[in-house]
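Sequence, structure tokens passed on for absentees:
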Amino acid sequence: MHKGFVDWDKVPEEKIVDGVRRKLITTDKMTVVLWMWDKGVDLPMHTHPEDQFYYLISGKARFDSDGESRIVDTPGASWMVPGNVPHSTVYLEDSVTMDIFSPPREDMIAGTDPYIRAATKRKV
């Protein structure tokens, strides 16, 4: 469990698949993930029981959720996804994002998050 100030430069980076890297910290109540996505990464439609808050730090992505599609390219663009709502993302530029999940993402902590590992990189 992490507490106190976070120095993201000291959080270990994990390569998930080609074009997807992350830094993860967790507490008893949430998981926070700093993501680095290469242009063309296609994160397939998926669900998870945890609520998700998504924050675009840089880049450009198309986000699809619950019948709505939106292209985001403004730093600070955010959206919330309630647990069990289908959603997907395609990264149209190299991008950096942050996710906050509550409760903690036990599958990410264990490294068994299958939809992330199913992400593919394609030309866009």
Summary: The chain has one domain: 8-121. The longest helix spans residues 106-110. DSSP finds two helices and eleven strands in the chain. The mean pLDDT is 94.
